Amino acid sequence: MENRFSEISTARKKETSSAGSRQDPFFTPPAYDSLLLDSGRSALFLGLKALRRSGCAPVIHLPAVICRAVIAICRLQGFSLRFYGQGKDLKTPTFAQTPLPEEVVLYVHYFGGRHGVMEDFLTSLPRRPFVVEDGTAAGLTPGVGTFGDVAVRGFRKLLPIPDGAQLLSRVPLDVPREAPDETFLERKRRELSHPFSLLPPDPFGAEARLDQWIAPRDMSSDSQAYLASGLWRPATAARRAAHRHLSELRAFLGNPLLEELPLLPEDAVPLGYPLLLHRSYGGELRRRLRREGFTLPMDWGLPPDAPWKDDGEFLRHLVVLPVTSRASGDEERLMALATEVVACGTREAPGRREARDTRR
Prior knowledge:
Elements: H1 2-16, E1 33-37, H2 40-54, E2 59-63, H3 68-76, E3 80-84, E4 104-108, H4 116-124, E5 130-135, E6 150-154, E7 165-169, H5 182-192, H6 206-211, H7 221-229, H8 232-253, E8 258-260, E9 272-277, H9 281-291, H10 309-317, E10 318-322, H11 331-347, H12 350-359
Helix pairs in contact: 1-8, 2-3, 8-11, 9-11
C-alpha cells in the first residue's frame, strides 16, 4: 500500500504545477455592486443590511447545516430565523413553510462546490424570495455569486492571504466600513509564514480575534495585491490536486465504511474533502484529527431549534478533511487516520461500541 501511496503522491506533485483556475476573483457580474472586505461575516452583515434597507421582510430561512457565525449575524440584523432541511445528502430542500416573496432565503455553497440543487429549487418557486448566496467556502469556484440578490465570495480560507472576501449585491451598497484590523493581520501573517505542518490550530490567536468581530472592514492592501497579481492560480491548482489525491487514496483502500460525497466539478476550488464515516466513526475521527493538530475546515453542529433529523444524521457522519493551497503531503496521514478509526471500531465488541456511542 505504501508504494501505491507514493505513486499517487508523485502524480499529485505534477498536477500541482499545472495552471490554476481561470476565475478572476475580482469578477463582478452585470447588475451587481461589489465591495472587497476582510471576511465573509463582514460581507454577509453588509449584504443583509442592504436587503433590509431595500424593504425585505425581517424573516430569513437558513439551512440546518449552517455555521453559527451566520446565525449570529442574521440576528444582529434583526431577522427572525426559520430553518429548512436538505436531507442526508444536502440535495432534498424541505421547508416547513414555503418562503414568501418578501422573505429571504440563504443557501450555502458547501465544501467549495456550487449548490446547483438549491438554485434549481429556488428557480422553481412560483414567486422567488430574496436570495442570499453564502460562498464563503467557494469564492474561487466559477458561477458562485451569479444567482443571489446578495452573494458572498470568500477567499481567505482558500488562499495564503490574511483576509479577503467579496460582497456582490443587486441592491445599492452605500455602507460605512472600517480600516483593516492591523493586529489581526499581523497575527495572521505570522501564521502564514510558518511551515503548515508545524503549527497548532490558531497559533497566534488571529481567528480568536476575528471571533470577537465588531464591525465590517475593508480588505487589506496585501490581500488585494495578491489577488490582482494572479499568484492565487497555482494555489487553486494545489487545492484541486490535494482533493483528487484524497479521492484516489480512498478509492484505492476500497473501505465501504469510508464514503465520498459526489465529486466536485473539475473547475471547483475545494475548501476540504468531505468524507462520510458510517456508524458512529465521524465523531471519533474528528477528535483524532484535532488531537493530531489538524484544523478542520468545517466542524458544525445542528442548531438546537432546527428539527431536521436527517441533516443532524448527516453532520454526525460527516468529516471534512483539510486540503491546503500548499503541498503539505498530509493526505496519506489523513486517510490513514480515517482507516485506523473505522478499523478499530469494527474490531470492538458490539456491546462495547454501543455503550460508548450512547455516552457521546
